[in-house]
Structure formats: C-alpha cells, structure tokens
C-alpha cells in the first residue's frame, strides 16, 4: 500500500508523458496544490500548451538530462517501458517512482468521497454525466475524465470539496491501485487481450475492484452482466443493480427516443417511481449509463429532479457521437468507438439519427485488439452502406506483422457491402467528397487520430 503522506511531503514531481489525458490532469492538480511540477512529452498538443501556460515546464523529449537532483518523485504511465531514459535515470538516482495508477490511487486517499467509474465501455460518458450533476448540485467536485468535457473546458476540474470523480480503467489492473468509496461497474467484456488472458481473468479483476469499496461505501453494477452473483457475493459494501428489467434495483420504463435518438424515460427504484429523465445524448446505451448515475446520486442523497436538472445542458464529452459539422448537406460525426460492442452502440445511434446513406471511416486501435476481434469487427461493420478502413493505430504496440487493416476488408468483401482500404487521410477525405451526397452521414470512428479527417473535410 502506498503512503500518501510521503507524496504530500514532496516538492518537485516529474511526469513522464505529461501530455496524456490522465497525466495532464494529475499534473495540474499537483501544480494547483503548490508542488513544483515538470514533465516530458514527445508530442506538442493543446494539452501541453495549456500546462505550459500554467507555468509547468514540459520537455519535448525523453532524456536522462530531464531528471535533476531536485526531483522528489517521478510518475509514469503503463506505456513507459523500463528502457525509458528518464525512468532509468530516476532509478539510478534512487528517486521514488510511481506508475500513474498508483499515484492516482494515493491521491484518492486525500478525499472523503472518491467515486470511480469502471467498465469496458462508457466510462468517460458516465463520469461526465455524474460530474455535471455534482457540479450543478453545488458539491464542487474535483474531476478527472478521459475526454474533453465542454462545461469544464478540458479533462480536469479542480474542486474544493471532499468529492473526487474519476474513471477507473481495468487495463493492467490499474484500478486495483485505487481507493474508491463509491464505485460503478457499467459492463464487463473481453478487451485489452494484450494483458488479460480471457474473460474469466477480466471478471476476476472487476470483482477485486468491487472488493476495494469499504463496508460503508456503495457499488452500482449493471444487472445484465452474466452470473452477477459470482462477482458481488463477497463484496462488503452496499450493492445495487441497474438495468432495463423490473427485476433490478434501478430500472427504466416508458422509454422514448426523439428525432435525434435521445431518450426520455421514467426511473424506478425497487418498484417505486422516482422521477423522469430527459437525456440530451443519443443512444439506448446512455439510458443504462444514466441509471448507474441515478443510483450513485441516490446514495449521495441527491434528488432525482436535481439529476435531471444537472443533465439539462449535457450533450456528452468530445468524440462520443460528436457532431463536428455539415458540408454540402452531409453531416459529419466523430466517435471514439474502438471495440465491437462500442461500434454496435454507435451504429444503433446512427440508425435512429436522420440520414440517407451511412459512411463509416474506421481506424482499428492496436494490433492485439484488431487480431482478437477481427471477425467481430467485420460482422458489426458489415451493416454500413460504405466502409473505409484505414491503418491500425499502434498506440503502445509494435507491429507484429501478422495483422493488417486490410484483413477486415477481406472479411467484409464476403458481403455485398462497399468496403475499401485507404491509408492516407487526405485520400479518404477526397473519396468521401466524391461519393457523398446531401443527406448522407459520415462517422469517423476510432480511438486514435482518425478524427483529423473531420477537420480536413471541414477545412479546420
């Protein structure tokens, strides 16, 4: 167990990979607390520029020279390997080092109500939903979210209360370093198969996450998860389920979708009608996300009417069915979906969204995920009118040479669907401009940099 008192006594904290969505937030929190903060990142970005505007020094390369004798603690991500020159230098100088998840977990110990949102899908949207409600209710939470939230103009909010809201990612068992008082498990599916060996190991990790919550804490868990009792039997906290069936603690009835595929519904708790919710984010999957939020808010004694009020202006974080613009009568949407289940949810939203033909530009994310779910990707993407697949976004991985984006196309070509592989983003934009007509819908889809195509189309 990490002793946070040792961290709070430090004066200079260095973050390797400070420009990352989570690392930048942690760096900003520590800077706000009066620590000297430095970092390094190989990429210049708006996030890096923001940190620099706060007075945080960011080095543009990873170099041992960045690790000076005055540094008291080095924080790094799971993507940083043992051969990183800064990590090597820190260890050589016997400077304490913590992986990001350990640091985040230790930070939670300084709050009375750390709220951790976990699940294979939906973490960013649900964390954002909950954050909006807590802010609107005047609870002044500190927030770290894995996406850009318009209402806080970024991915971090520095609050002044005992509430801390964050995502809890299962990759490399990161969330097992956390100290949640309140937890959410949105869903459990196979993913991150470069770390997990099978679904049984994944379920075990989520079980262990739930066991971290103390006896006076709370867990909201999706009741549709298979064999849920196997997960929750040994948990000591209060556990409540949510879902679309009346057998769960929290459920929705009288669900209606408007012309933009946004749901309105009645919320029930243990058979009692609690109130009505109007969502301004599209998709049935967001009904489930919202029910988990209702459960957490009920535990925090936040009225359901306040929940609905807090969601009034919530249209979702960036890259979650984000409407980027319109060109020549063609609507352009960007979405973060990179797992077959996420893609299916996004395509369901698109199905309910007004359009003629659907064009999807899909960028597979990581080689291991593409290989593990090759048949699933081909199956779920076979329903779109025109599919363009571009190169696999490597992220943290090296190319093993046994999987290629073209492999998805080869599977797709067994259907009547139009499916093409194009590597260059400029050529993809040209293809879309040539083939799309007014009324069509374009979705750029993936967790890499495929969103740049929308900017090319719109001339941004």
From TrEMBL:
Residue span, Mur ligase central domain: 117-297
EC number in record: 6.3.2.8
SUPFAM superfamilies per record: MurCD N-terminal domain, MurD-like peptide ligases, catalytic domain, MurD-like peptide ligases, peptide-binding domain
Compartments, record wording: Cytoplasm
Annotated catalysed reactions: UDP-N-acetyl-alpha-D-muramate + L-alanine + ATP = UDP-N-acetyl-alpha-D-muramoyl-L-alanine + ADP + phosphate + H(+)
UniProt keyword terms in alphabetical order: ATP-binding, Cell cycle, Cell division, Cell shape, Cell wall biogenesis/degradation, Cytoplasm, Ligase, Nucleotide-binding, Peptidoglycan synthesis
GO process terms (BP): cell division; cell wall organization; peptidoglycan biosynthetic process; regulation of cell shape
Residue ranges constituting the Mur ligase N-terminal catalytic domain according to the UniProt record: 12-111
Keyword presence, Oxidoreductase: no
Main location: cytoplasm
Annotated family: Belongs to the MurCDEF family.
Protein name: UDP-N-acetylmuramate--L-alanine ligase
